[in-house]
């Protein structure tokens, strides 16, 4: 799949630089003290449990960012199924470079593959409906770029990336401000003043708030923690005048029932905050290559 816009070269370069600095500091002394500088070797990435693989493209970017001479032969691409024991790729390069990047590559792939696998499982429950599965901002600090990328690899749709690319007026904004009507009015004035073209979404908790948000003419109405009957009534009330999003208390078991209400989107923080890591390892191939 095409790399998402937020995972651009500049953003990834900054992420990788910070991550490697955190791990290496003034040197990987275990490697520097025992491995010859010019020794060239191979290592294979072994998938140790069934999953949807994610992070292969990122792995190659990490390797080449650290050492441009490193080469990867890919056998399983991002988004593809893997079985326990499959080899996702083989990397060839200086042994020192392989060892110094190993942990970062595995940390990213294990986490991303877990998220992609969970997203794929959830999204499969929406097959045959028009409802799209969204992630949220409930991500690990400084790791959002990888976690949202993994959601996309798993078949989900990314919600806003951060606070800057959409106006979302949630319960606290509305409670602090006084009303949905006033909050939306101020948001529109702000966008006009600052010449910004951003969609406005409003969180609603009951049908009265849905009516108020609808009258305020917003781009999307979030139906937060509503029971199925209320949600169905809200969707009917909105009648495609704007987009609809179900959120709050979403579990895998209720996805199909929520989608049956006719909502355009279902957002779930669980895709990123509750996914388990997949067991993946990078093992040396014991064949010496003279460099």
From TrEMBL:
Q: What would be one Gene Ontology cellular-component term for the protein?
A: cytoplasm
Question: What residues does the Quinolinate phosphoribosyl transferase C-terminal domain cover?
Answer: 115-283
Q: Its annotated pathway?
A: Cofactor biosynthesis; NAD(+) biosynthesis; nicotinate D-ribonucleotide from quinolinate: step 1/1
User: Which superkingdom is the protein from?
Assistant: Bacteria
Which keywords appear in this protein's UniProt record, sorted alphabetically? Glycosyltransferase, Pyridine nucleotide biosynthesis, Transferase
All residue ranges annotated as the Quinolinate phosphoribosyl transferase N-terminal domain in the record: 28-113
Biological process terms in GO annotation: NAD+ biosynthetic process; quinolinate catabolic process
| PANTHER family assigned | NICOTINATE-NUCLEOTIDE PYROPHOSPHORYLASE [CARBOXYLATING]
**Protein known as:** nicotinate-nucleotide diphosphorylase (carboxylating)
């Amino acid at each position: 799949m095409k790399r998402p816009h937020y995972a651009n070269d500049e953003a990834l370069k900054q992420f990788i630089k910070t991550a490697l600095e955190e791990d290496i500091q003034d040197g990987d002394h275990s490697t520097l003290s025992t491995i010859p500088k010019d020794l060239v070797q191979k290592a294979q990435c072994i998938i140790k449990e069934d999953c949807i693989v994610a992070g292969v493209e990122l792995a190659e970017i990490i390797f080449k960012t650290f050492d441009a001479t490193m080469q990867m032969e890919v056998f399983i691409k991002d988004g593809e199924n893997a079985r326990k024991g499959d080899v996702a790729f083989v990397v060839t390069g200086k042994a020192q470079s392989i060892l110094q990047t190993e942990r970062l590559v595995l940390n990213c792939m294990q986490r991303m593959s877990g998220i992609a696998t969970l997203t794929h499982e959830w999204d499969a429950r929406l097959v045959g409906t028009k409802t799209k599965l969204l992630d949220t901002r409930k991500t690990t600090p400084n790791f959002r770029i990888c976690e949202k990328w993994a959601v996309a690899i798993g078949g989900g749709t990314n919600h806003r990336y951060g606070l800057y690319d959409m106006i979302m007026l949630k319960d606290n904004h509305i409670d602090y401000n006084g009303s949905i009507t006033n909050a939306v009015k101020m948001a529109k004035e702000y966008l006009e003043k600052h010449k910004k073209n951003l969609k406005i979404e409003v969180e609603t908790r009951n049908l009265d708030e849905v009516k108020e948000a609808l009258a305020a003419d917003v781009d999307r109405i979030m139906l937060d923690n509503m029971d199925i009957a209320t949600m169905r009534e809200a969707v009917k009330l909105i009648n495609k005048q704007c987009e609809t999003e179900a959120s709050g208390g979403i579990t895998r078991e209720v996805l199909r029932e929520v989608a049956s209400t006719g909502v355009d989107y279902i957002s779930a923080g669980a895709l990123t905050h509750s996914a388990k890591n997949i067991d993946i390892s990078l093992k040396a191939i014991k064949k010496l290559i003279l460099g």
